[in-house]
């Protein structure tokens, strides 16, 4: 992925008083957006929940009841990760890689009684080495052979949230997909604060603003997050970690 080779466009230059006035005008809109987000989150906390039947996933200890994935915490957030059977690591889902690679620090979730885990579409035998290659520290499971009630007809690439009650009955409380998954992607939220934004073609940006060429989540043929992993060679883009 490279940026445009054209001369970089710049915003208008104004004195600081004018800049502050324009910034304050936008700040009022940002505050309104934040308050609306708070209101939506409040409504989310008031959603009903639905029971989850007894289901299992495959993990390092084999077949694992969903209750054990909670690791003793009250809540569970699971990302359902796509998987392409028989494909090398560089051909695995770049969107799922983009979302999950951000979940490096789980301390704040754990402090709020939330466990984060990934349920992969591929088998555990095939996908667990990929998680190790990526350096993921969160729990990784396979939902390949799970009861269909777990996925409930949804395509992989979504977040689902669960709650267990005092009798260890499990309920699904929320799920989201598409751009809802951006809740995990702090890089996007940070880029949105910069002058050039995400630099993607769909954005409403001024004329001449730089945009990435190629896939927004890939660089030289592989998901961007993989380039910092041991075993990746710049010459070929290949990894030393199997296929």
Description of the structure:
This protein has one domain (44-243): Glutaredoxin, CATH 3.40.30.10. The longest helix is centred in the first third of the chain and has 30 residues, at 16-45. 28% of the residues lie in helices and 19% in strands. It has a six-stranded mixed β-sheet. With 243 residues, it is α+β, with helices and mostly antiparallel strands. The protein starts with 15 loop residues before the first helix and ends in a 20-residue tail after the last strand. The protein is globular.
What would a concise description of this structure say?
InterPro entries: DUF899_thioredox. This protein has 243 residues and is of the alpha+beta class.
Overall number of strands: 10
Q: What oligomerization state is this entry in?
A: single chain
Annotation field: number of helices: 7
CATH class value: Alpha Beta
| Assigned CATH architecture | 3-Layer(aba) Sandwich
- The fold-level CATH name is Glutaredoxin
Q: Given the helix and strand composition, which structural class is it?
A: alpha+beta
- What series of H and E elements makes up the topology? HEEEHEHHEHEHEEHEE
Tally the structural domains: 1
Overall pLDDT metric? 93
Could you list the spans in which at least 5 consecutive residues all have pLDDT below 50? 235-243
Query: Main beta sheet: strand number and arrangement?
Result: 6 strands, mixed
Shape: globular
Q: What would the keywords be for this entry?
A:
7 helices; globular; 10 strands; Glutaredoxin; alpha+beta; 6-stranded mixed β-sheet; single chain; two-stranded antiparallel ribbon; 243 residues; DUF899_thioredox
């Amino acid at each position: 992925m490279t940026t445009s080779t054209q001369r970089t466009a710049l915003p208008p230059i104004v004195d600081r008083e004018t800049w502050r006035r324009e910034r304050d005008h936008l700040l009022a809109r940002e505050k309104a957006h934040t308050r609306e987000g708070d209101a939506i989150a409040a409504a989310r906390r008031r959603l009903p929940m639905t029971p989850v039947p007894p289901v299992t996933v495959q993990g390092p200890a084999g077949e694992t009841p969903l209750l054990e994935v909670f690791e003793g915490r009250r809540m569970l957030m699971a990302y359902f990760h796509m998987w392409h059977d028989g494909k090398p690591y560089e051909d695995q889902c770049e969107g799922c890689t983009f979302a999950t690679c951000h979940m490096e620090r789980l301390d704040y979730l754990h402090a709020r009684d939330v466990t984060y885990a990934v349920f992969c579409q591929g088998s555990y035998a095939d996908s667990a080495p990929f998680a190790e290659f990526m350096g993921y520290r969160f729990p990784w499971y396979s939902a390949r052979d799970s009861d269909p009630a777990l996925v409930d007809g949804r395509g992989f690439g979504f977040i689902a949230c669960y709650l267990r009650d005092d009798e260890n009955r499990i309920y699904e409380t929320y799920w989201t997909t598409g751009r809802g998954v951006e809740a995990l992607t702090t890089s996007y939220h940070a880029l949105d604060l910069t002058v050039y934004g995400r630099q993607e073609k769909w954005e409403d940006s001024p004329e001449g603003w730089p945009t990435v060429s190629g896939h927004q989540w890939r660089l030289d043929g592989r998901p961007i997050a993989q380039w910092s992993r041991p075993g990746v060679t710049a010459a070929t883009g290949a990894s030393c970690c199997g296929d």
